[in-house]
Specification:
This protein has 2 domains: 1-402, Alkaline Phosphatase, subunit A, CATH 3.40.720; 403-474, no CATH class. Helix content is 30%, strand content 10%. It contains 15 helices and 12 strands. The protein has helices at 19-23, 72-80, 96-101, 124-132, 147-156, 175-181, 214-223, 253-268, 344-353, 361-365, 390-401, 408-416, 427-440, 448-452, 459-474; strands at 8-14, 41-44, 51-54, 134-136, 186-190, 211-213, 229-232, 276-282, 307-308, 311-312, 323-326, 334-336. Strand 2 (41-44) and strand 3 form a beta hairpin. Helix 8 crosses helix 11 (390-401) and helix 13 packs parallel to helix 15. The longest helix has 16 residues, at 253-268.
């Protein structure tokens, strides 16, 4: 095969949505996709009499409150119908309603929402890209668990034996170190705080300018100055007029669709378009229904480390997540049913960019997707612009005009307008607050005020905390 046309790889990783939830109904458009027929179901024991509840294409942007369960015991219950079930060769995927109902206290508030999937018109950017380029219908999260370990796999092909959303000292090598050693450029672009800073070896002065705000990604793409590898983190907090766009329940999914459109258009209209591969994926399924059974075993333990609580040997993948590949060298409407996982990213980066070594046993064994760019010549019919959900587009446009840190007057305006989010921090947000505080307390000059700040309790307070940290750490205005 001839050399890959790809010289730049861009990865956008969103939060906590399953394949069926986001793209399952795309099967009606392209029968080759392993999506839903509409007959898939789960039992609901709360009904009198108990009944089967089928999937529907009625998902709303703000449906899932409280946040569905996605710890390893939750996933075990969702797939095998019990939190302590013995993992058989094939699961049933009949425990999603049962698990979600168990997340409520007091009166049950419609656990059937976990079976609601998105219709095409709700996600115009994502669905357009899935039809214009390639959709992967067999990309699984790297572990049947939460955000932190799964995001570690995309960076390092291991979670260092950790399986939860608690803050750990991830003192491990990463794809960024491999790129650095090979004199290849890289950047991590973020909106409020980069979760990748949990990787302690990235916290060195040499790498500080490798972390940039998302606005810088737009500029780098426009100027044709993207690095060889770009990783994009979404906004994890609602902060007044800057609403979260990560799609984590219960954040507005439509704002994430706008982010997807923004990233695509930046790449599509860049001078580097014909040499760039864009990968859009989600870190884990977020406890939301998917009909495909995850592989029960068959993947490599990365580094010989196991988790004790809960017991886990890192030889089992999680539930499917959406994944879309974008390049002018990809045939329109392609469906890739290769079994990928998050370690496929560093494995593919190694192959395309000619890095000398794999990171762990996991990426060494992972399937890679460099052959997705199979056309001999770049297509000339790819859309330059994408449709967006209209209201979300206006909200995102306003956010883009605002500075990273609000002035006191802007803060007052946002609070007066009822934009202050007083919901409790979710587990992931709380761990990002702890990350900011821990780095601030490590002794860097000028950051002790962040380390000494009272512990945030609400989303608004958490957003302020991590933004103050990022402003100090990266010298942002």
């Amino acid at each position: 095969m001839s050399a890959s046309p790809v010289e730049h790889i861009v990865v956008l990783m969103m939060e906590n949505r399953s394949f069926d939830h986001m793209l399952g109904y795309l099967k009606a458009v392209n029968p080759a996709i392993n999506g839903v027929t509409g007959n898939e179901w789960n039992p609901d024991a709360s009904l009198n009499p108990p009944a089967h509840v089928s999937v529907s294409n009625t998902a709303g942007y703000l449906d899932l409150d409280p946040d569905p369960g996605h710890s390893t015991p939750d996933v075990t219950e969702q797939v095998y119908s019990g939190p302590n079930a013995t993992v058989p060769p094939i699961g049933t995927n009949l425990g999603f309603i049962q698990n979600y109902a168990g997340k409520f206290t007091g009166a049950i508030r419609d656990p059937q929402k976990i079976m609601r999937l998105f219709a095409a018109q709700k996600l115009p950017a994502l669905w357009t890209l899935a039809q214009e380029f390639a959709v992967c219908d067999k990309w699984h999260s790297s572990v049947p668990g939460q955000t932190w370990p799964n995001r570690m796999f995309v960076h390092a092909a291991t979670s260092d034996g950790n399986l939860d959303n608690k803050l750990h000292a991830y003192d491990i090598s990463t794809i960024y170190h491999s790129l650095e050693d090979a004199y290849r450029t890289w950047k991590i672009y973020f909106h409020d705080i980069p979760q990748a800073l949990a990787l302690t070896r990235l916290r060195v002065d040499l790498f500080r300018d490798r972390f940039q705000l998302f606005s810088e990604f737009l500029e780098d793409a426009k100027k044709g100055d993207l690095p060889a590898y770009s990783f994009i983190e979404p906004r994890y907090y609602n902060f007044l007029f800057k609403h979260a766009n990560d799609q984590h329940p219960n954040h507005d999914v439509s704002l994430g669709d706008v982010l997807i459109a923004d990233v695509y258009e930046a790449v599509r209209n860049s001078p580097l378009w014909e040499h760039t591969l864009l990968v859009i994926a989600w870190d884990e399924h977020g406890g939301i229904y998917d009909h495909v059974y995850p592989p029960d075993h068959g993947v490599a333990n990365p580094d010989g480390k196991n988790c004790a609580d809960p017991p886990f040997d890192f030889q089992r993948l999680g539930i499917r997540v959406p994944a879309v590949f974008v390049s002018p060298y990809i045939p329109k409407g392609a469906v890739d049913s290769t079994q990928y996982e998050h370690a496929s990213v560093p494995a593919t980066v190694k192959k395309i960019l000619g890095l000398p070594d794999f990171l762990t046993n996991r990426d060494a064994a992972a399937k890679t997707f460099e052959d997705i760019t199979s056309l001999g010549q770049p297509r000339q019919d790819t859309p330059a612009m994408l449709d967006r959900p209209a209201l979300a587009a206006r909200i995102a446009a306003r956010a883009a005009r605002l500075p990273f840190l609000f002035t006191p007057m802007q803060m007052q305006e946002g609070i007066a307008a009822g934009e202050q989010s007083n919901v409790p921090l979710n587990e992931y947000q709380n761990s990002l607050v702890e990350l900011a505080s821990a780095i601030a307390a490590s002794g860097r000059a000028g950051m002790m005020s962040v380390a000494a700040a009272p512990k945030p309790n609400t989303e608004h307070e958490g957003a302020q905390h991590v933004r103050r940290f990022s402003a100090e750490y990266f010298g942002l205005q």
